[in-house]
Specification:
By secondary structure, the chain is of the alpha+beta class. It folds into two domains: 5-102, no CATH class; 178-328, Histidine kinase-like ATPase, C-terminal domain (Heat Shock Protein 90, 2-Layer Sandwich). Helices cover 57% and strands 14% of the residues. Strands 2-4-5-7-6 form a five-stranded mixed β-sheet, with helices on one face. Strand 4 (246-253) and strand 5 form a beta hairpin. Its EC number is 2.7.13.3. InterPro entries: HAMP_dom (IPR003660), HATPase_C_sf (IPR036890), HATPase_dom (IPR003594), His_kinase_dom (IPR005467), HisK_dim/P_dom (IPR003661), HisK_dim/P_sf (IPR036097), Sig_transdc_His_kin-like_C (IPR004358), TCS_sensor_his_kinase (IPR050428).
């Protein structure tokens, strides 16, 4: 109780008033001592010294804390404030500031890694695009050679465009001011549209896509963004499901939540990969031969979280994967 600055100052203040009052009553009115003024002055000075000591300790800790804060910048975010010689609100303030530094440090590291990953993803298609154009311009060629070069260049520009679109989606999901124009929309209609899209995407691999959705489910957010998130999961399911496999899309609801599950009969995800599949640019051991930037699931999770939802995954190698998306109803 007495470790708090507030309680110590309060006790000192009330105690000083009580002591002064009692002393004045005893010295002046009860004992009527001739040198009462001397004792009164002595008591006043004693209380003043106690008060000064408390205030000095407070200001000393605050000065030390302030000087340490001034020394920390973006270049040394791994520094922490230690050696606070007090067990009170100032120590709590230092602890809170250290926690803030932890969050900032982790955020800086994530952004630095993200920039490095984006640069790496853009480097390969840009290099391929440049070399294709340079080879095409080295000497005169037949029209068919130019067409082939243009097709390869177009393919790389599509890859660049896809990566940049993914980066923009991630930036949107982490920028609250971009999410002010949210509104209610019918999730059942969105799932029906996505089912139709999934069936078209799965035709080439002859994958059967079925769906079952409860009617009139309304959620709050951005229909196009949430559609993109769910479509990323569907796209993954199609990529990793073998020919003539099956994908099932189901939506159920409770009084407060809507649950969307996407189940496939694909190759499954190893336990080692499962804990990382939502990381940016992470591509598991089973994705080596599948085209993609490794941003799809990271975008899906970021968008779903921005809609106050959550996403879960269960998978077994050789048996398939189940993604479950939980969203609050309007």
């Amino acid at each position: 109780m007495f470790k708090s600055l507030k309680s110590r100052l309060f006790i000192w203040y009330i105690g000083s008033l009580l002591l002064m009052t009692i002393f004045i009553i005893l010295i002046v009115h009860v004992f009527e001592l001739e040198n009462g003024a001397f004792f009164l002055t002595l008591l006043f000075l004693t209380l003043a010294v106690f008060g000064f000591t408390i205030i000095y300790k407070i200001t000393k800790s605050l000065t030390y804390l302030s000087s340490k804060m001034k020394m920390i910048s973006s270049k040394n975010l791994d520094e922490r404030i230690k050696d606070i010689q007090s067990e009170d609100e100032i120590e709590e303030l230092a602890y809170s500031f250290n926690e803030l530094l932890d969050r900032l440090h982790n955020a800086f590291k994530r952004e630095q890694q993200f920039i490095a990953d984006v640069a790496h993803e853009l480097k390969t298609p840009l290099a391929t695009l440049r070399s294709t154009i340079e080879v095409a311009l080295q000497q005169k060629r037949e029209n068919i050679d130019y067409q082939k070069a243009l097709q390869e260049s177009l393919s790389e520009t599509h890859r660049l465009s896809s990566t940049l679109k993914n980066v923009l989606d991630l930036a949107w999901s982490e920028t609250p001011q971009e999410q002010k124009n949210a509104k209610s929309f019918n999730l059942t209609e969105l799932m029906a549209d996505l089912l139709e899209t999934a069936q078209k995407m799965a035709v080439q691999k002859k994958i059967g896509v079925s769906g079952s959705f409860v009617k009139d489910v309304t959620v709050y957010g951005f229909k196009d963004k949430l559609g993109r998130a769910i479509l990323n999961i569907i796209d993954n399911a199609i990529k990793y499901t073998s020919q003539k496999g099956k994908i099932e899309m189901v939506m159920k609801k409770t009084d407060t939540m809507a649950a969307v599950t996407i189940k496939d009969t694909g190759r499954g995800i190893s336990q080692k990969d499962t804990v990382h599949i939502f990381d940016r640019f992470y591509r598991g051991s089973s994705s080596e031969k599948v085209f993609g930037s490794g941003l799809g699931l990271a975008i899906a999770k970021a968008i779903i979280l921005s809609h106050r939802g959550e996403i879960k995954v269960k998978s077994k190698i050789g048996q398939g994967t189940i993604f479950t998306i939980i969203l609050p109803l309007t």
